[in-house]
Structure formats: C-alpha cells, structure tokens
Amino acid sequence: MEIKSSCLVIADISGYTRFVMLHTTSLLHAETIITDLLEAVIAQSEHPLTIAKLEGDAVFLYATVEGDQRVATRNVLKQVTEFFDAFRTKERALIGCNTCGCPACRSIDKLHLKAVLHYGDVVIKKVGQFLELAGENVILVHRLLKNSITIKNYILMTDTYYQLSGGLEGERVESRTENAEGMGDVSVKVYYLREKIPLPAPAPARIPEPGTESTILYERMNDYAYRRLSGLEPRRKFSSLPDTKLTRLSRLDYAIGRLIPQIIATLSRVFAKKH
Ligand SMILES: [Zn+2]
Q1: How far does residue 229's CA lie from ligand 1's centre (Å)?
Q2: Do residues 234 and 55 lie in contact, with contact meaning Cβ atoms separated by under 8 Å?
Q3: Which residue among 39, 52, 83, 129 has its CA within the 20 to 30 Å range from the CA of 253?
Q4: 153 CA to centre of own chain
Q5: Phi/psi of residue 92, nearest 5 degrees
Q6: Would you give the end-to-end CA distance of the chain in angstroms?
Q7: Domain limits at 258?
Q8: Residues of the chain whose pLDDT is less than 50?
Q9: For residues 71 and 56, what is the distance between their CA atoms, to the nearest angstrom?
Q10: Which residues are CB-neighbours of 232 under 8 A, at least 6 positions away?
Q11: What is the whole-number distance in angstroms between the Cα of residue 11 and the centre of ligand 1?
C-alpha cells in the first residue's frame, strides 16, 4: 500500500431515456452503442493515464505524479479533451451507418459524455494482480459525477485541478459550487464543450445492403445480443441502463423488435415509391 499524488479522471456516457430501455432489442443495442463509444474514448488514453476501473458506461482513470504537477495535470487535461473528439467521431460514424429502427439506434444523438477531474493523494493497494485506488479523493471524484449540471457534454474539474492545470486555454469557464454527497460543498470549474458541427442525419431504418459498414454493425449488434440472450456474455455494469433479467421471452422480444421497425420502414419506402 502506498500513497501517491494523482490526477483522477472519470469519463461517463449517459443520455438514453426510459423509452429506449423498454424493449429487449433497444436495451441490448443501447449496451452495444455505449460500449462502442466508451471503447473509442478509452483508446485515446495513453501513459501515464491508466485505467483504474472500467464499467459499462464509465471509466475511472488515474495518473500518478512524481514530477511537475502543472505539466502532469495539463497533459491529462489535453487527453481528456481528446476523449471528446473521439466520442464525437465515433458517434457520427454510428449515426451514419446504423440502419436499425429501434429507439436506441434512432437516438444515438441523445448520448453525451461528461468528464470529472480532480487532483490529490490516493491510496494505491495491490489486490491480487490488480491495483485498487482508495481514499477520500477517489470518493470525491465519483460523487461529483452526480451534480446539478443539465447541459450535455462537459468537463468538470475541482478548483484544485483547475489551479494546477490552468484550465482550457481560450474556452469559457463557469465557476460553480456543487454538493458532493456526504462531503459538503466543493468549488468547481466547468467547460461546456458544445458541438461545433451539426450531427449527420441518421441512416434510414432498413435491412442493410450486404457488404456495407451498416451490415458489419448490424451483424455485430446481433451477435452481441444473442450472446447476452444465451448467457454467454455477462452484462457489464451499465449504471445508466436497467439491469433487466433476460428470459426466453426476451429472445422472442428481440427477434420481433429487431425486425418489425425495419420491415415497416422498408414497406413504407416501397409504398412511397409506387405512389
Ligand atoms: Zn437497434
């Protein structure tokens, strides 16, 4: 066990409404979409930023700091801004090629990314072959994820982190006070990262043409869904999605829910062409 000064980061994806989670198809597709987006974010992280814990829709990362705190906090902040670029690029790609008609696939644009940053001492313990982070600062960064901000896509950092890193150059910053449950009020700085280019129009709902990006995604989603429905794939911890028990009925629900929106969309297109 050792105590180390560290940059702490949580990146979290959420935004789906209850409507999206009502049916098996939509729920399983929501899981695939969030996983894809989170993987794109994680792929951007590089040394010294390391994954401490990975959940379905959030990742907790840290970077221990031995040298200059300012250089270290600036480097981590730069990586976090790149998370947002990676998130948006993946979001655009998914919207552009997803031809499924279910509510989750039709509302990818509702998803958003938020990141919370803090700097402080943490206790690092070795548990088996893994390292586990603990201490008040670890709790604080997690508690700040629940806050009063209603705007999508933002970086929230504690004043401690802001003062060390100097914040984001040229971006407007908001000073706020957030209540970290059980830990009192915390002064924070928030950057709202607004989308500069509008998101693309969603791909039309239909059964995709063979050999296209859409088919690859369609098949991958089906594959994940069948592995989940047959119990081969355990559910990762998605805190923004319900942990619905999958039964035999869910398989039927999936098969119907997968096809009906596509059939309706295809028929209405054929019908519209004829008239
Ligand atoms: Zn779908």
Answers
A1: 15
A2: no
A3: 39
A4: 11
A5: -60, -45
A6: 73
A7: 1-275
A8: none
A9: 31
A10: none
A11: 24
Ligand 1 mean position, distance from CA 205 (Å): 9
Report d(CA 144, CA 6) in Å as an integer. 17
Let me know the angle formed at the C-alpha of 159 by 239 and 70, rounded to the nearest 5 degrees: 105
Let me know: does 167 contact 189? Beta carbons within 8 Å. yes
C-alpha 204 – ligand 1 centre gap (Å) = 12
CATH code, domain with 131 = 3.30.70.1230
The angle formed by the CA atoms of residues 256, 96 and 87, to the nearest 5 degrees, is 105
Amino acid in position 275: H
Q: Domain tally for the chain?
A: 1
* Token pair listed for 80: 């976090």
Q: Where do we find the tokens 């990362």?
A: 61
Side-chain-side CA neighbours of residue 209 (13 Å): 5
Q: Report d(CA 154, CA 148) in Å as an integer.
A: 12
- Angle of helix 213-229 relative to helix 24-43, nearest 10 degrees, comes to 110
The chain-wide mean pLDDT, for the chain, equals 91
Looking at residue 275, what is its pLDDT? 62
β-bridge partners, 13 = 113
